[in-house]
Design brief:
The chain is built from 14 helices and 21 strands. By secondary structure, it is α+β, with helices and mostly antiparallel strands. The strands form four sheets. Strands 2, 3, 10, 11, 12, 13, 20 and 21 form an eight-stranded mixed β-sheet that branches. Strands 14, 16, 17, 18 and 19 form a five-stranded antiparallel β-sheet that branches. Strands 1-5-9-4 form a four-stranded antiparallel β-sheet. Helix 2 packs parallel to helix 6 and helix 2 packs across helix 14.
Amino acid sequence: MMIRTLSTASARAVGAAHNKLLIRRHLHSTYDVAVVGGGIVGLATVRELILRHPTLSFVLLEKEKELAVHQSGHNSGVIHSGIYYTPGSLKARLCVRGATLAYEYCEKKGLPYNRCGKLIVAVEQEEIPRLKALHERGMKNNVRDLSIVDAKGIREREPYCRGIMALDSPYTGIVDWRMVALRYGRDFEEAGGTVLTESEVNDISMVKESPSGSAEGMKYPISIRDTKGKEVHCRYVLTCGGLYSDRLSQISGCSREPRIVPFRGDYLVLKPEKHYLVKGNIYPVPDPRFPFLGVHFTPRMDGSVWLGPNAVLAFKREGYKVYDFNARDFADALSFRGLQKLVMRNMTYGIGEMYRGVFIGAQVKILQKYIPELSLNDVLRGPAGVRAQALDRDGNLVDDFVFDGGVGDVGSRVLHVRNAPSPAATSSLAIAEMIADEVESRFTL
């Protein structure tokens, strides 16, 4: 196990630098490249771009007051090792490289992390073939230090966990991904980039010719306007909109598909006096019949332990509470045939997820398969996250990266990152390299 810690004084210094980053403003409003979306993918990418092209001007536009507050700040905090993904696939390559880059970055920048490991535990005989297949897949993906352990090996690593066989991944770790994302942003500003918060983009169009002539419009032909009427001009636009990636595509004249459907994941937390039950990440063997991984045990950098999450349709794209509701988001989701088909195929699973979200005893019962000592009195309701799940019109989860541009004056100067699927945080630096390559291939920087 490898742990990097951060002193209290260092943490305060990092926080102060982050606050300074959020209030810094620049007066000019013309840029070579504008990046829309201040989550971890947008921040990693704009950082990569400015490091490659230090003589160009870049601006990052974020609709919230702070950076990385949605998916980047509401996740399990796991550094994944690349076990689950099809050998040779883009997701597998990006995750394996991304994990290595993430650890190296944290070391270089002095950011705390804990390489606490992960067990994928089989509790039923029927799960063993799937577990062995995962081991083979992980080996083909060049996941580091992967091995299969028996029941005794499980107890040696997790004394309170019970299972008949497990896949041991000591290279898996945990980190505060929002802290990492904010550090990407700090790198970007230190390299000369501009961050504009509270800039919710609602229009991307061609610059209209000014009375004094069109020289400015010819050099910076794209106009980006926000909901407050503020405007910046640029040569090219890259969007990394996460939960709003489909709507950003639509306002620039590109397709809305794949459509984003928000799924909320509710976590439970272990009471502090029960933290001793869990040392590292404990995951179930994935069931291929269902679209999500299932509930798991995840230690956090602050010492807490999260259990979950479930996966239920969110009635608001940024709805972290059960009763959060947005009429447009709700109507958008329910009217989409892709979601209707997904629901019909997974009706029983979906009802079960909703039931376990309401009656946490049902969720604890599943968790007890792995840690029998756990009881309902040991847990409390915890935080939630919302996942931007891309769906196609046939109801299939879009499980790979999707780039989208367009035709015409605007479309030829815009690149949308339509889907950056999990584990996007782990893969963020590797994803940034790929997106930067795509930007360079499409645009003349």
